[in-house]
Structure formats: structure tokens, C-alpha cells
Specification:
Two copies of one chain form a homodimer.
Chain A: H1 2-7, H2 18-30, H3 35-40, E1 42-46, E2 49-54, H4 56-62, E3 69-71, E4 76-78, H5 84-101, E5 114-118, E6 125-130, H6 134-137, E7 141-150, E8 161-167, E9 178-180, E10 182-185, H7 192-204, H8 208-211, E11 215-225, E12 232-243, E13 257-264, H9 265-273, H10 282-294, H11 305-312
Chain lengths: ~325, ~325
């Protein structure tokens, strides 16, 4: 049934009509709803470098620890420690106290996962924090998202289908939302290619030799208000495309995914273009739209194309 | 010979070493050498909208035509005409006088090609100018670049070769430089897909049915000081990938290209990474590097990857 349905659809027919592109733009803009908040935020200064952005109410909480943070109207400076290790220990102590106090809702999503804070992706680590506190300090986070694509017939020109995951109801963030087949944050010291292979196995049961065929395809970035409103997520996502065999079915391994479904690409586009639809984890839409642009499923002749691509790349 | 050489090279071996990625970054930065000049430039105001950026010496020349341009320290306002037609006629008259005076070297590259000036790609046309004057007014220009790729063996994993054009010595801009097999500025009223088909025929003798298979893959933009130093080029390039058959050989049709050569991808990368090599038309490198990123020939594990991709997307 699925294959017959997709075979009836030509590549030309996949072109999203003008209004759809404008709706896709809103998905990208929704992921950049933190730009104004970021402009008002105070720089987090570590070892003389501005490495993050702190919102006013988070700064007020950090000001209660003056031996660790020197908070003024214009900046939040980490003053404890003169090495990455010493700073990290001091900040871990503050975060533990804030978590126990229950005053910072974001910390309810504690993960026990170390997150490196650096001036650039290839720069030395200046500080290591608990991952759940990343948006509190507004430090860039890096992750990998994998578009799991299934081409029904090589060379037929038929667009691929996309594996879509439904997040488990127990996830601390975005429970029950639609997600990529594989997506995860980069752990401390982990390379993107290693992350993809690990997460493919852990999240979807994709064997290593198949996962290793995932092709890197660039990155997207955005600046989003954290779900709790206490910080900004400044994420950089490495985008991968993985062509999966028609007979492969992903299997949830670690309880993070409730179910997997194979969607027609047009179904994905229509669902994202329905801006009342709140099923999607927002950043997943940005990575899928980037794939639609890269693979030519959204076309330059459509009104709004330039705006969508520029928003993806801003 | 060529096929044997490329067959020896595996996809893994194509990964550019760390230093190469840093050198590719310099190519992208070189195309953005107009960012500082643009920050100092005065807005070109047309019908109440800032549509361009004018450098100081260009503003001084335009100030000699006070019935058309109201020039102050903070802006250059087009005051003649209250319709696109009337404004365009007034500006055409100024440009003709400037061209005849020989005072603005940029206008020696006169093309007799109409260029629309708009607030956004899909916005109404506010003004039409001679294309050669685009950088004088610092108005965004739109073009299409086609990566002409030849895969030697379907499914072998061998990277494609790239058709490279040597521009004719008689070209007004970048004579003798290396270029895409097909690249051109969008003419007034022309869609990107139409432009690609037209330029494929005119520049390389690629028949329409083959040209129509070019796949759109997004866009790159940059802000570059004009060759003459009189303006900034704020270009937006629609990127296309066109897989050409192994037995197809492009043929120069319109005298704009001196010769075509089929290069191994590694030869292209090495040549661009040699920053002393001045053979390349600068913006061509940006489009090729975007293709290397999209198609995974440059990888996230390499030092500098994030910087290169962010520079491409800035």
C-alpha cells in the first residue's frame, strides 16, 4: 500500500505550494523565539571570555552565591576557580543547591550528563556543567540529528519516506512529541560521528555498520527560549542523512521512544505546515526543513523560499 | 586514466585533513571582506525603505546630482520619481553621465542588463538599474551557480568529479579565473529554474532536458568589496547540483568561457585550500564549499568544520 501510494507521487508534485513555504518559515522562526531575550541577557564571563547569556531571573538566583558569581546589571562573571576543574566544582555545588531548593524549574530535568562549555566548538574546555543547566547559562549546546530516509525505488525519482519517532511520555523534555529516528546531545569529549553511531544503537537499534553510513550534511543553529522560560537554548545541530533499507524497522532500545512510524514526505511537510499542530518537537522541524532545502524538495521558485533558507542560516 | 585515478580513491580518503578546512574557511572569509565596509556605508533609501548600502566615495559622486539623490552623512535618499519607472529613468540618466565621465571605474563593466531592486526576493520591484551599478548602490543581487558533477560509478562510493570552467580573457569581471560550469546573474523577471536552463544552454551547451535535472540545494550569501573598491556586492546565490553523464562534454557557446576541464574533487579541494592560488573566482569557492558540506565531503570531526559552516551561513 505504502509503496503504491508513494509511486503515484512524482518529484514535481512534491513541490510545496507557496503557502506551505511561508508556514515552514514560521516553524524556523518559532525555534528562534529567543533572539530578543538573548539581546537583553547578560554575558556569562568565564576566564575573561563571554561564553554564555544569562536572563535576569537566572542572574538573580546566581547572585545569591557571590563567592562563585559576581553579578552586575551588565554581566555575570564566574569568579570561583582558576582552572576548568576548579570552576566546574564550584558551579556544580551551586547547581546542586539550586536544584535542592526547587527554585529553578529547569533543574527538575537533571540528567547527570556532563556538558562542556567552550568559546568555540574546537576551543579548549573552560568549564563542565550538568547538561540540564545549559540554557540557564545560555551556553551553546551541540547535538546530532539523523534524518532516517527510505527510498522506495532507486532512480525512480520518487521522494523518500522519513522515519518519525514519538518520544516517550516519560522524557523530561518534550514528552510525547514527534522526533527524529535518532537525535541526541553531544556528550563531553564525544565526536559527532561517534555520537551518531552510539545513539543509532541506543535509540533505534540501528547496527553500527548501517549507522556508519549516515552522511554529514552541515548544521543548523537557533536561539530558543527554554521550555521553563528561565534561559535560552543556543543549539548547534549537526545534520545527518541516513538512507535505511526498505526492510529495516527501528526498535526502541532505551525507553526514550514510544513508537516509530514511516511517514510519506508530503505527510511530514503537511503536518509541519499546519502551524496549529503542536505534535512536533520544535527543533526537529528545523533539521527536516534543512533537509527539504538541501535535497530540493522545496524549490527556489516558491514564494518565501529565500526567507526560509535565510532563516535557517541566520 | 581519469576513471582509474578516481577509483583508487575511497570516500574515506576524501576527508580533508584539519588544516585544509581552516584554509577553506579563509576562502569563505575572503568573500565576506565587505562586512566592515558595509557597516560604515550609508543606507540607500528608496520610497522610505533602506534597499542598499553606499560607500563614501560613491556617495560623493551621487551628491553631484541633487535633483536625484539627497546625500547626507547618514543616508543617500533617492528623491526623484514616485514610481519604479520614474525612479529608474532618473537613475539611468545619472548612471549614463557617470559612465561617460569615466569617474566611476565600476561602470566600465557596463552590461546593458536590467537589475531589479527590491526589499526582499519576493517583494515588489522599487527600481531597476544597470547590472554593473549593483555594487555602487550595494543592493542585493541574485544569481544561480551550478555544480556540474560526474559520478564515475553509481553506488561505488567514489566521489564525483567537478566540471570547472576557465572564464574568457575578455570577460569584464574576473577574466581568466576558474568558475562553475554554469553560473549567472538572475535577470529582471527571471525565475531561478529558468535562469539555470537558459545559462546551461548559453554557457555550456547543456540541452534543456538535461539542465532541467539540476537539483536546487539552498543558497549562499556573502558581502564582498567590489573589485574596483567603489561598492559592496551583497550577493545571494541559488545553488544547484547537476549530475552530468560521463560521456557529456560541455561546449562554450557564447564566448564567455575559454575552456572546460573535468577535475577530481580532491584536486578542487587542494587548489582552493592553497590560499596563494588566485585562479578561482572568489564566490565560486563559497558555492563549492557549500556542496562539500552538504554532500559530506567535509566532515564534522575535522577541526574548523563548525567555523566553516557557520561562515557559509552567516
Amino acid at each position: 500500500m505504502r509503496q503504491q501510494a508513494s509511486a503515484r507521487r512524482s518529484l514535481a508534485a512534491m513541490t510545496a505550494p507557496a503557502s506551505v513555504v511561508g508556514d515552514l518559515l514560521r516553524r524556523v522562526q518559532a525555534c528562534n523565539n529567543g533572539v530578543e531575550a538573548a539581546a537583553r541577557a547578560r554575558p556569562l564571563v568565564v576566564g575573561g571570555q563571554a561564553l554564555g547569556l544569562v536572563l535576569a531571573k537566572a542572574a538573580d538566583e546566581l547572585a545569591r552565591f557571590p563567592e562563585v558569581f559576581h553579578v552586575t546589571k551588565s554581566s555575570v562573571e564566574l569568579v570561583a576557580g582558576d582552572s576548568a576543574e576548579a570552576r566546574s566544582a564550584a558551579v556544580a555545588d551551586v547547581l546542586a543547591q539550586l536544584r535542592n531548593s526547587g527554585r529553578v524549574p529547569m533543574l527538575a530535568g537533571w540528567r547527570n550528563e556532563a556538558w562542556p562549555v567552550k568559546a568555540g566548538f574546537d576551543s579548549p574546555i573552560e568549564l563542565v556543567i550538568e547538561r540540564a543547566a545549559g540554557p540557564l547559562f545560555g551556553v551553546p549546546g551541540y547535538g546530532c540529528h539523523v534524518n532516517g530516509l527510505v527510498y522506495s525505488d532507486a532512480g525512480s525519482g520518487t521522494p523518500p519516506r522519513l522515519w518519525v519517532a514519538r518520544r516517550a511520555a516519560s522524557k523530561p523534555t518534550y514528552p510525547g512529541k514527534l522526533d527524529h529516528v535518532v537525535a541526541g546531545g553531544l556528550s563531553h569529549g564525544e565526536r559527532p560521528s561517534e555520537n551518531v553511531v552510539r545513539e543509532c544503537q541506543e535509540e533505534a537499534g540501528i547496527p553500527q555498520e548501517l549507522a556508519a553510513q549516515a552522511k554529514p550534511a552541515g548544521l543548523v543553529s537557533y536561539c530558543q527560549v527554554d521550555e521553563t522560560g528561565w534561559g535560552v537554548k543556543r543549539d548547534v545541530l549537526f545534520c545527518y542523512d541516513l538512507e535505511l533499507p526498505r526492510d529495516f524497522v527501528p526498535e526502541a532500545q532505551d525507553g526514550e521512544v514510544e513508537s516509530f512510524e514511516l511517514w510519506e514526505l508530503q505527510q511530514v511537510i503537511n503536518s509541519m505546515a499546519d502551524t496549529k499542530n503542536e505534535d512536533w518537537k520544535p527543533n526537529v522541524c528545523v533539521v527536516i526543513i534543512d533537509m527539504l532545502v538541501r535535497r530540493g524538495f522545496v524549490k527556489p521558485g516558491e514564494v518565501g523560499y529565500v526567507d526560509v533558507v535565510r532563516a535557517l542560516r541566520s
